[in-house]
Amino acid sequence: MKYKRILLKLSGEALMGNKGFGIDQVRLTEYAQEIKSIYDAGCEVAIVIGGGNIFRGIQAEKGGMDRVHGDYMGMLATVINSMAIQSALEVLGVQTRLQSAIKMEQICEPFIRRKAVRHLEKGRVVIFGAGTGNPYFTTDTAATLRAIEIEANVILKGTRVDGIYTADPEKDPAATKYETISFEEVYDKGLEVMDMTAFTLCKENSLPIIVFDMNKKGNLKNLVEGQKIGTLVEM
Prior knowledge:
Elements: E1 5-10, H1 25-40, E2 44-49, H2 57-62, H3 67-91, E3 96-100, E4 109-110, H4 113-121, E5 125-129, H5 139-149, E6 154-159, E7 164-165, E8 177-178, E9 180-182, H6 183-189, H7 196-204, E10 209-213, H8 219-224, E11 231-234
Parallel strand pairs: 1-2, 1-6, 2-5, 3-4, 3-5, 6-10, 9-11
Antiparallel strand pairs: 7-8, 10-11
């Protein structure tokens, strides 16, 4: 196995599946099965999931809502998604722990770095909810921060496209895919991989990112085992 400890970043929108809103149970189960496949292989897995399928703070701000208020609502949306993926994993027999950056003692643990690392060492999947616990920071930034804190080998960013392209492949059929790309090239070309805060954190801490298609069955396991899937961003 190439990666012993990974942080998997998923978007909330991915959980919608074919729905226009909320959580698609079929997609949720598919993701849980993919995660279980690497868990069974002995990989230590941490997860951060967005909340865009339920609520987005930035969009709420455009509608006139206070940005800070909207961001906190978005953090709560990520906890709902985190609980959903936790439940789906536990149905499959995977041991999990959910830690939140905002205290919610009745449903999850508070985020404590040493505890999170211990859970991983004991073979539990750790899910980090509520972002960083601070407004103005995205779940991309939360994923990067947690990955650095738990000393993950890599961030695996599961998306609906199979990597990073020269342009949006859904809009430009001539777009070509990068197999590997450096952090500097991403800056120079103005490519969107993560928000700039998250991306800079990765660069400064030499934390590689792999962008891949999470919806293709077997991709996650093959990637963790070392197959060249998606696009690798490294120094």
